[in-house]
Write a structure and sequence with these properties.
Length: 108
């Protein structure tokens, strides 16, 4: 099945141009690529953007949108958690989330 080209499903009513517009708009609003996929699935009923021929990242590259690296996204989360921790020193769940994000940054 690898290398097999996927065809547009008959029940998907949205056109590729409309999908590209939605994806670019969501990305400009600050959503990650993974979150865009979830929004497309839940709100628009599109299980995979690839069903329409292109992946989300390919659509963003085609629209000449600068894609944030995973390290940048993680660093932004860490900064927000550090700011939160300054005000809420005893917030244990936030402290644990901060440690997890630091681990994730080391992996990248």
């Amino acid at each position: 099945m690898a290398g097999e080209e996927t065809k547009k499903a008959d029940w998907v009513k949205i056109k590729l141009v409309e999908l590209e517009k939605i994806i670019v708009e969501l990305y400009k609003q600050g959503e990650s690529i993974a979150k865009i996929g979830l929004v497309l699935r839940d709100k628009y009923g599109i299980p995979k953007a690839k069903l329409l021929g292109k992946r989300i990242k390919e659509i963003l590259e085609g629209a000449k949108v600068q894609i944030r690296s995973e390290a940048e996204v993680i660093q932004k989360k860490i900064d927000a958690l550090n700011k939160h921790m300054e005000k809420n020193k005893h917030d244990q769940p936030a402290k644990k989330k901060l440690v997890k994000e630091l681990w994730a940054l080391k992996r990248v």
